[in-house]
Known about the structure:
290 residues; mainly beta; 9-stranded antiparallel beta sheet; 8-stranded antiparallel beta sheet; globular
Amino acid sequence: MVNGSLRFRLTVSFLFLVIGSSFPLSAATEGLTLGREKNWLVIHGPAIPGGSIRINYLEAYCRPNSTDADWVKHTVIPHTNDVVSLSADAKVLKLRDRLADGVVVEHTITAKADEVDFQLVANNASERASEAHWAQPCVRLGDFTGFGAAQTKDDYAYMPKCFIFLQGKLTRMPMNPWATEARYTPGQVWCPKGVPRTDVNPRPLSPLVPSNGLIGCFSGDEKLIWATAWEPYQELFQGVGRCLHSDFRIGGLAPGETKKIRGKIYIVPNNVKALVKRYERDFPEQSSGK
């Protein structure tokens, strides 16, 4: 005879097995997954407003002396992209970019519970120096911030949801001063210390210097934060497609040279202190504002 306590444990175990078999990946355990649609890297997640975030990955590889130069004729280095592999669970995506000047960039992108990790290896196997100094992952955040993806006359209404850090404090956009003059307008670029101000996106360049490399935004209901950082990074950028950028720095490649770049995207509950602590752990090189 089965006693009451054992019967209870068996019943609970049976229910757990039934529920587990019906829902093999719950929202709590599934976390984020990845997809690739042409030039778009798509991050899927049950907690993401709209269900996904789309990234033009990569929008462009860029030459230096770009701040006041023609984007197409001077700055952009043409490249092609191939999907090397996507794991069966859609957690690990490997891509390969081939730049017109001979550089090859290998991307390993890994989705976790509440972040996406980027590990890049750029190699110049050619016999000439490469002018690949920086690159742009363009993250579209209209749906996440509650304003939709379509471009309209109110395309910049999402900006008060967006932030960078100035003098160590989270500062929402638009901040004062806000630059308005450049070769191409609108938008806003923040250039960190150590990066030539002649080498950034040809959008209005802010005189303000970010105190770290973290840029992000709040969801429409303010319950979540999306944020990103790269090491090394070239600039922070608010663009024209309801997008935000942390554009990563390559710094050029000599013949035979290899460089490694890493990045993170965080999609986390609205706890700014916890996010900053995590960012400083992941990017200790940037935590002092370098």
